[in-house]
Inverse folding.
């Protein structure tokens, strides 16, 4: 049996380290900023890739996330909440990118990267993509965020931290977002 006390202490130690780095950055320590960047850049990339699908766009968005974070660091009340705060900035940057570049955009048939040489299969794929786009666009921002974080592999604890709610509320948000997605897809009776 694993000693849960050790893993909790390790998480607390990691949070304390990040909080200390945040305070050091606030004091002008560039090495601390490098450390925060290196520890969180993969997480930020993962989040913005959910919104942006080209390498250059992802790189620009990651840069924007960290620029906003540095700019707004004085407004972060609890340095222990740096990770969920940064996740929120990343989601906002991704959403902003979508609003700027893809308002109501429908994927063109020629853009589908598929090996389907059959025009009927390509048309069916396009129809499915349009339907998914419509359904996701019809969900609330909160539901989209919850489902996006789930798709990235985040669990209830991470979602709770990102949304600023407790674990129980996150589980309810996950359940409701899934239920609404199924309803919009016409899968109400599905597991």
């Amino acid at each position: 049996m694993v000693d849960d006390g050790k893993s909790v202490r390790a998480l607390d130690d990691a949070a304390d380290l990040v909080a200390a780095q945040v305070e050091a950055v606030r004091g002008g320590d560039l090495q601390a900023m490098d450390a925060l960047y290196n520890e969180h850049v993969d997480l930020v990339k993962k989040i913005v890739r959910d919104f942006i699908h080209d390498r250059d766009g992802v790189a620009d968005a990651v840069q924007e996330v960290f620029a906003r974070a540095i700019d707004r660091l004085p407004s972060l009340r609890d340095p222990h909440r740096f990770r969920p705060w940064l996740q929120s900035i990343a989601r906002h940057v991704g959403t902003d990118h979508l609003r700027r570049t893809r308002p109501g955009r429908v994927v063109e048939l020629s853009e589908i990267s598929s090996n389907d040489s059959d025009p009927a299969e390509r048309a069916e794929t396009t129809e499915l993509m349009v339907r998914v786009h419509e359904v996701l666009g019809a969900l609330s921002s909160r539901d989209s965020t919850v489902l996006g974080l789930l798709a990235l592999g985040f669990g209830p604890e991470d979602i709770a931290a990102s949304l600023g709610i407790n674990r129980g509320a996150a589980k309810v948000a996950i359940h409701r977002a899934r239920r609404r997605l199924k309803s919009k897809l016409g899968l109400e009776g599905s597991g």
